[in-house]
Amino acid sequence: MVRSKRVMMFAAMCVLALVSGGASQGEAIEELPVVSTTALSTGGALFAERDGYLYFHNGSLEGSGWGDGGFSIVDISDPLLPGVVARYDDYYMGFHAFSGHYMFRGRREGSPPDCALHVIDISDPTNPTLACSVSVSYRPRAFEISGNYLYVAASHQGLWVYDISDPTDVRQAGWLNMEADRLALIPQSGEAVPILYVDSHEGSFVAGELIAMSLLDPAHPSVIDTISTDCVVSMMEMGTILVLVQSSVGERLLFLDGADPFVELGAYASDSLGGLAVGPGDRHLYISDYEGNFSVLDFRQPSAPTEVAHCETGLSNVVTVVPTPTHIYALGSGMLVITEALKVFEDVTWDSWAAAEIDACIGAGIVGGYPDGSYQPTMPVARDQMAVFIARAMAGGDDNVPADPDTATFDDVALDHWAFKYVESCVASEVVQGFDPVTYGPTVTVSRDAMAVFVSRAVAGGDENVPDGPADATFDDVPTDNWAYAYIEYCTGEGIVQGYDPVTYGPSIAVTRDQMAVYVARAFGL
Fold it and tell me: Which domains are delineated in the chain?
């Protein structure tokens, strides 16, 4: 593949939607109250939450003169009473990656340095053990994992590739002679090939290059494209978005489309950018400021990210923040501060089963909440509400739903009915029909069989495009002669719906608002 080079201009005249810190006009910033503060035995920085345990780097080992003193694991099964359950001591260089129940770390000890890659088994978080050690001739700078391969940046000593299909027997699979200081991986979706981003800045405040590499052959990454950049301090991935922390003029975050290399999406300026963390659902970005505070950006619109929450922890220094579905943990000066997590809605927390899909539907302009800040996830969906979901999803958001026609199709959905244009849009698209030529039944509750009919027609592009069902039925309660058989089988085959068990669909069960968000998100790839 031909390697091309483009220069990215970071001056103020660059055509970017650069948004200064703070909420958009008229939008309040939520103040997150501290609900608990716990002293930890060592300082350091949080770096992960996995399966109900926090992981944090310990403070420097006495006399080590390098890095930190390993890591500790904190049990947060009771979020407000965290307790350290294990400590693992090593001379760690500040980088890590996880795969399954293994942690991959870089180790440096002695002078001259004795460097190695360590694989640590954390299947029992109370007893982390060394599973594999690989001696290396370089200082590991950054780690990323894609499938069965570990990528290690080693500055001017290149980009190293390891086969980790057996984490207890890690073997080198490749090496590229290039400057590699920081890494970020955009995993992609479906059959798309993952993209590895390599930052080649030898220092934090000098010019360098950002390189996009295809992992079509994961053992031998190939260059897709390269751009010149200035003063990249760090970078990370947020879903399919690449986030660069830049300090050329003040401090700012630059957002790039990671799936389409180097397409600029927006930026965010701040007086002080500390540690970064991505919240549940890849919607919020958490930023600590090194002054005892952290802020939360809503990332739904990368071209215009807005600050939606702020916390003054009471600490003199917040090093890192780790958000979980139920709480936010901030660590600084050996103190662990805990706040309540942000919610999708007052009645939808991030650990709710449909939280991600509800949030995706919000971002796509398909659903909204009630004036009291609730979503009412368990409320049954009526036929008028169903039409709103479907019409917005087909149109790509509320603003794109066609304007009201001049006349009404149904007597019970008149011109002044709140859902008039949505029902008419679904009628025009042959997604819905009335119970008779003049009766729609807007307040009739939608059952799972009727939902499958609506969604199938919307996805397939009309009733005539929904294929006949298979010869044998998937569900015992939806036989081949069921009126909605073909539609339910179509939705099942497309991965839109599932049964309550392998042979039970529940066709007459009412659809609720959380379920509807899930069906729409799956059907329209949100």
Answer: 21-41+274-342 (2.40.10), 355-523 (no CATH)
